[in-house]
Amino acid sequence: MFSRFTLCLIATLCASAAMAQQTDPGPGRRLAERFCTSCHEIRPGETGAGPMAAAPPFQLVARMPSTTQLALHVFLSTSHAGMPNILLTEQEIDELAAYIVSLAPTPK
Ligand code: HEC
Q: At 95, which CATH number?
């Protein structure tokens, strides 16, 4: 039989594991600054035309109802619009997607 303390400990461990799974947007922002700013506006609040007019600012991408972590993951798994030189790992894709999703006005 588990003691109350053990149950409490297990509950705490599970809760912190669940929190750790949510990807932190910080690293994604740094990746975006490195790889995406040559064409996109990537910062919160930036909605004007970026360095490449055809490339939508991430703030606007985040506002589109179709933008989700999963949709971004799929999109970024292939290169787009002359972005073939950027080879992203699965983890980098997740981090970038988490950053873009974090720009949405309401959490998704
Ligand atoms: C060489 C220029 C260029 C670079 C570099 C670039 N993009 Fe793009 N991106 C575009 C253009 C142009 C579009 C719009 C046309 C399209 O979707 O192909 C676009 C569209 C997008 C979209 C919109 C998808 C949608 O649903 O409309 C996302 C998200 C995106 N880029 C993410 C990124 C990320 C993340 C990076 C950095 C890893 C990046 N892009 C780097 C040019 C670029």
A: 1.10.760.10
- Ligand 1 geometric centre to CA of 44 (Å): 16
- Confirm whether 17 is domain-assigned: no
pTM: 0.80
49 or 36, which is more confident? 36
DSSP states along the chain: ---HHHHHHHHHHHHHHHHHHSPPHHHHHHHHHHHTTTT---STT--S--SSTTSPPHHHHHHSTT--HHHHHHHHTS--TT-TT----HHHHHHHHHHHHHTSSS--
Cβ of 82 less than 6 Å from ligand 1: yes
Give the chain's domain count.
1
What's the domain range around 69?
24-102
